[in-house]
Design a protein that fits this description.
Blueprint lengths: L3 E2 L23 H5 L7 H14 L2 H6 L12 E2 L2 E13 L6 E12 L2 E14 L2 E7 L1
Antiparallel strand pairs: 1-2, 3-4, 4-5, 5-6
């Protein structure tokens, strides 16, 4: 059985952002975690990946559609996220109400490298981007 925890690993606002953009966490995904709204579906996707890295269950739940959101989120201690690649995006800009982001998230599980690839669907709820489900 996998161990679960909800405490966040240490990440300074000046640390490189785990989402892969050339920015500090505090100016990039950290700002979204603190309440700034995502301007695009891709920006939300990147911030959600980073929320998995820092184990921010509250942010993940807040940015998940009320239609598909699980009641809770737990984290597996044996998984460490190591990088995010955005493969393609469709729509999802400030001018759209929905979009998709295909990504590959790299991680290690019990020290062995692995990947998760998904084409995620995003929509707007009350004007804010939210994750709905795999497209």
């Amino acid at each position: 059985m996998a161990k679960r925890r909800d405490r966040q690993p240490a990440l300074s606002p000046l640390s490189p952002c785990p989402c892969g953009l050339d920015a500090a966490y505090g100016d990039c995904c950290g700002a979204l975690h603190q309440g700034k709204a995502a301007a695009t579906a891709e920006q939300l996707m990147r911030s959600r990946y980073t929320a998995f890295v820092v184990r921010d269950a509250g942010y993940l739940l807040r940015t998940w559609s009320v239609e598909t959101r699980p009641p809770t989120i737990g984290f597996d201690d044996d998984i460490q996220w190591t990088g995010l690649e955005i493969l393609t995006t469709t729509a999802g800009t400030a001018f759209h109400t929905e979009g998709t982001v295909e990504f590959r998230a790299n991680y290690t599980h019990d020290g062995s490298p692995a990947t998760q690839q998904e084409n995620s669907h995003f929509t707007r709820e009350n004007g804010l981007w939210v994750y709905t489900n795999p497209a």
